[in-house]
Amino acid sequence: MMEKWPLVLFLAGLIATWTLITFRVMQVMLAKTEKRLEEKITERSDIVATYQCRVDEVERRMLDLKADLPLNYVRREDFIRHEVIISSKLDRIYDRIEKGKEG
Questions:
Q1: 78 domain residue, yes or no
Q2: Which of 26, 41, 49, 101 is least surrounded, with the fewest CB atoms within 10 Å of its CB?
Q3: Rounded distance, CA 12 to CA 98, Å?
Q4: Is the pLDDT of residue 1 over 70?
Q5: CA separation for the pair 47, 37 (Å, rounded)
Q6: Alpha-carbon span 39 to 32, nearest angstrom
Q7: Quick check: is 10 in a domain?
């Protein structure tokens, strides 16, 4: 019975060594994977930051355009209303001139 103990201890040591080696390889692989994921996240963050800058620029330009539109452009309805007002004033002036000629 005593002769089997060295063999059992050797096998137990072999199993423990194999287990430790396996765990260490897994740790190294997980560390590499984590590093690659962090690099990808950093790349994505840079890309997102770049696009965010572009989006901010487009939003700023849209707000500038929105602020400038009432100053630079007239709506069709406003133009027609002003044209009607001007036409009616010209008609009244014409009527006054015609009444002055008759009298």
A1: yes
A2: 101
A3: 124
A4: no
A5: 15
A6: 11
A7: no
